[in-house]
Amino acid sequence: MHTTKLRIPSSQQQQQQRDAAMSGGADGYGAYRPGRPSPRRSKMMILLVVIATNLVSVYIFSGASLSLRLPASAPSIHLWDSSALLRDLNATRAALSAARAEIAVLRAQCNTSSLLLESVLAGLGAIHGDKPTVEEFNGWPEEPTGEIKLAIEPHRLPLGYSVKFGTDELHPVLGFACRNFQEELTQYMTYNASAECPDDDAFALQLMLKGCEPLPRRRCRPRSPARYVEPSPLPGSLWSIPPDTSVNWSPYTCKNYTCLVNRGRTRGGSYECKDCFDLAGKERRRWLTDNGGPGFSIDGVLASRRPGTVRVGLDIGGGTGTFAARMRERNVTVVTTTLDLDAPFNRFVASRGLVPLHLSLMQRLPFADGVLDIVHSMQLSNWVPGDVLEFALFDIYRVLRPGGVFWLDHFFCLGPQLNGTYVPILDRVGFRRLRWKASRKLDLGAERNEWYVSALLEKPMT
Question: Where is the signal peptide (predicted)?
């Protein structure tokens, strides 16, 4: 008879079975699941987490550098060491500058190769009888040479690429329309370098009026007037006629200031600003009184602003500078744009102790945005093409500061043009009207329907 023996496990085996049951057995899928860890074990885990957190905090705030393990080719990134980060940034910037310099050198080499190739192609074209196109000389009808080439071509910076300029070359400023008058420009640039300049002021002005503005610089010295006399001191110079020996008179019809003063006292003749050299006549009375019409007074305009807030300004087409003189008497500095149209307007303005600016209406105003308190003009009228006028008005808006004023003085137009053309232009610019006065111009007859408009316009604060 087979007898089955009953085996009773030892106490050690019983303990092992209990541990296996609690852990889910050998395969991890036992039926037993503990409800929650013992309180003693939970406290131990929290304590370990707190200790680890404190150790990490001490390590971080002690100033140690923590670096990420990246491939050897990658730059190290320092998360908390500011000096190391600054060194990395400087090294990166230096590498970038070096790369830009290399690019600039490569570009110069490419340009040289391109010029060489163009020269070869031009030579082959000449052999075959081809005529060069305008595009072959950067828009010039003929290839520039001599002084004109030196004055208009870009020049390499001695220290290479400039981060400030964003280039390794300096390009001279030249009016785009100069390309349309290459023959005249070549004549202007034909002179003896380091010697006296040709006596060609009138010729240069004609080039400017054709749109060749600004003109290129020249390497010559303009002739000074013979027996030059220094100007009178301020404030007497504001209302005194300067000596005739302060001007080279060869470009002008009149050969002295007496002739210019007498122009305003005689009838007939068509001259620019005919009577503005007569400082003892009508010019002396300008802008002193408000006539209730389009003639505003300087004091009335300044009274519309908070005292002392009109300090610097511009007078566009200011003739001999009388508006600037009146403003200087009121401690306001005004720059006057003027052209030497058959008279030395710029020298006359300067002799009065004022600042002239030789600038045509087509040129962008040489001021930064929002820097002027007031802009005044009597030059603008319906002789200016509508699009040109609109660009000029937006440019005036640009240079005025918020709250600055534009004084449009005696703008001339015909009746239908006023509301049909010019009021919409002014509205598009965005000025706010402070004062507006339109009056009929009747000296040549009412049937001509001619009008003067004067306005005080403010650039809004917001």
Answer: none
